[in-house]
Design a protein that fits this description.
41% of the residues lie in helices and 14% in strands. By secondary structure, the chain is α/β, with parallel strands linked by helices. It has two domains: 7-17 and 269-378, Aspartate Aminotransferase, domain 1, CATH 3.90.1150; 19-264, 3-Layer(aba) Sandwich (Aspartate Aminotransferase, domain 2), CATH 3.40.640.10.
């Protein structure tokens, strides 16, 4: 059975390229093909485009252009932050959480296997991390705390500013005690730009990961915000691009597209947040009415959950099986728990519905029909 109509409900996995972003990118796929490292006019035009994009992104984040490092993905950005610190401090302690995206979690786990000291703080039952537990995990040799901003499966918004305050308190203690070990906060903010504030000074983080493909920009480009003065070790060597931290010819079209996408997201944020909140409430109301046995995973709808996310468990039905059945009926969703490492937070794999700019009530109605039909067959 194949349905011509499709309802895409997996925007947390990937977003379509905004046509306005494509328009900005197109010249760099054509005549403006120069290498940004070249001294001639073609190279200078490419360099100017990157510099302009860097400034635009820095303005959105309320940081300096020189604090933006372009990478090939969000995963690479997270790896540069985590491994870039770990390589400089091979005995430095790292604190992270049980609900991190694999981009952070798997890199930390790899370090742990190499006998690097690591503490993994368990999230609460609702998927939110208690800042006090982060504070309790800090040691005199802790060099990095990495906490996701918006959890990718259950949409939980982590109290980053509170966590950053706890870290600053420890940092100040070290300063007063004349201890030399640095302490930094990194966040994976890839799921945040559409709905959450991105002002880095307000978040209080030292390192921040973003990804263009989650914000209606191109795949294959990400960035790492690195506070001025922080030293990282590069993941590889080469031509020394991006302040010697990401060697390789820059993806000019992708970088231009990233800046355009981030600006558009910032411009639309308040209006889209309100629209998405209405859709989220409608969607959950329909689920409760038509599928009363469904269990919402993560925090309740409201302050601590992004408005485009709903993750449910249907008792007795495999999430992956349900994903395949609704796909056959024309709906794209995904399966997954907050993190396999945290058995308390996610007792069963759930089905994630993540809405986006093109989602309408009609899409939700269509999704509900596909969901109900699939459940009826599977029960």
């Amino acid at each position: 059975m194949k349905h011509k109509k499709r309802a895409y409900m997996d925007y947390a996995a990937a977003t379509p390229l905004d046509p306005r972003v494509v328009q900005k990118m197109m010249p760099y796929f054509g005549m403006r093909f120069g290498n940004p490292s070249s001294l001639h006019e073609e190279g200078r035009l490419a360099r100017k485009a990157i510099d302009s994009a860097r400034k635009d992104i820095a303005d959105v984040l309320s940081v300096l252009p020189g604090e933006i490092i372009f990478t090939g993905s969000g995963t690479e950005s997270a790896a540069l932050a985590v491994d870039g610190i770990a390589r400089l401090f091979p005995h430095g302690h790292i604190v992270t959480t049980s609900v991190e995206h694999a981009a952070v979690f798997e890199n930390v786990r790899a370090l742990q296997k190499e006998k690097h000291p690591v503490s993994i703080v368990e999230a609460e039952l609702n998927g939110i991390v208690d800042p006090k537990k982060i504070a309790e995990a800090l040691r005199k040799d802790t060099v990095l705390v990495s906490v996701i901003y918006v959890q990718n499966e259950i949409g939980a918004i982590q109290p980053l500013a509170d966590i950053a305050r706890m870290v600053r308190k420890e940092r100040n203690r070290r300063k007063e005690a004349e201890e030399k070990t640095p302490l930094y906060v990194h966040t994976d903010a890839c799921q945040a730009p559409e709905y959450m504030p991105l002002s880095v000074p307000r978040l209080g983080v030292d390192l921040c990961t973003l990804n263009a493909s989650k914000v209606y920009g191109p795949k294959g480009v990400g960035l790492l915000y690195k506070r001025r003065g922080i030293v990282l070790e590069a993941l590889w060597q080469g031509g020394g691009q991006e302040q010697n931290l990401r060697s390789g010819t820059e993806h000019v079209a992708g970088i231009v597209g990233f800046a355009s996408a981030l600006r558009l997201a910032e411009k639309k944020k308040q209006k889209e947040y309100a629209r998405m909140t209405r859709l989220q409430h409608y969607f959950l109301k329909e689920i409760k009415h038509l599928i009363p046995q469904a269990v919402l995973q993560g925090p309740p709808i409201g302050t601590f959950r992004v408005p485009n996310n709903i993750n449910i468990v249907i008792p007795g039905i495999s999430a992956e099986t349900l994903v395949l059945y609704v796909d056959e009926r024309g709906v794209a969703v995904s399966a997954g728990s907050a993190c396999a490492s945290n058995k308390k937070t996610a007792k069963q794999e759930g089905v994630r519905f993540s809405m986006g700019r093109h989602t309408t009530r009609a899409d939700i109605d269509y999704t509900m029909q596909a969901l109900c039909d699939s459940i009826e067959i599977l029960q």
